[in-house]
Amino acid sequence: MAFLLLFLSLLQLATAHFHVDYPYWRGNSFKTQWERPCGGVNVTTNRTEWPLDGGSLLFAPSHPWAITYVNLGLGSDDTVIFNISLVEAFNQTGNGTLCFPKITIPEGTPISAGTNASIQVIQLSELGSALYNV
Ligand SMILES: *[C@@H]1O[C@H](CO)[C@@H](O)[C@H](O)[C@H]1NC(C)=O
Ligand SMILES: *[C@@H]1O[C@H](CO)[C@@H](O)[C@H](O)[C@H]1NC(C)=O
Ligand SMILES: *[C@@H]1O[C@H](CO)[C@@H](O)[C@H](O)[C@H]1NC(C)=O
Ligand SMILES: *[C@@H]1O[C@H](CO)[C@@H](O)[C@H](O)[C@H]1NC(C)=O
Ligand SMILES: *[C@@H]1O[C@H](CO)[C@@H](O)[C@H](O)[C@H]1NC(C)=O
Ligand SMILES: *[C@@H]1O[C@H](CO)[C@@H](O)[C@H](O)[C@H]1NC(C)=O
């Protein structure tokens, strides 16, 4: 039993992951979250309407800390390029839910009502492995 528990907790560490709750992620990426740039999910599905002047972001990390990036990519499909930084890289610490009440979109970003886009959240953990969510 002790062995089983240890094994389970090691497995837990090895598969640490995070989920984005708002705007709701495009799909459950737990199995493929290390895949750049979209965590292995399809950005053509499950869109959320997000205000044109920026909106909120809510995600639940599972690492004690991780260098975290929030980027925006314009486009409708898998060719989207995440080259607009929405939040400067920061060290996410602590356990719980992280919420940005209002993230603004840089001035001059070519968007209008109905523009398709994706928000990318990247978490770089202690040993440098990266996890992605869109
Ligand atoms: C799509 O998003 C909705 C919430 O906006 C969620 O309930 C649903 O499970 C999502 N679908 C998938 C395949 O993740
Ligand atoms: C994503 O979905 C679209 C259609 O909704 C499909 O054409 C495309 O092949 C899918 N891409 C991947 C990587 O599954
Ligand atoms: C936005 O993406 C949806 C599918 O998610 C597609 O039906 C629609 O045509 C796209 N809109 C534009 C302006 O490309
Ligand atoms: C992002 O990449 C697209 C496509 O290459 C380009 O048109 C756009 O100017 C780039 N935006 C920024 C902010 O670098
Ligand atoms: C992030 O913060 C944690 C907790 O304070 C610290 O242990 C860690 O070294 C920091 N990481 C970096 C890359 O600064
Ligand atoms: C974070 O909190 C949850 C629920 O309170 C707990 O199950 C989990 O072990 C905690 N994780 C860390 C790294 O402290």
TrEMBL record:
Keyword match Membrane: yes
Topological category with respect to the lipid bilayer: Lipid-anchor; GPI-anchor
Leader peptide range in chain numbering: 1-16
Location in or out of the cell: Cell membrane
Coiled coil: none
GO cellular component: plasma membrane; side of membrane
Key words of the record: Cell membrane, Glycoprotein, GPI-anchor, Lipoprotein, Membrane, Signal
Primary site of residence: membrane
Pfam families: BIM1-like_dom
Domain Copper acquisition factor BIM1-like, first and last residues per copy: 16-133
Descriptive protein name: Copper acquisition factor BIM1-like domain-containing protein
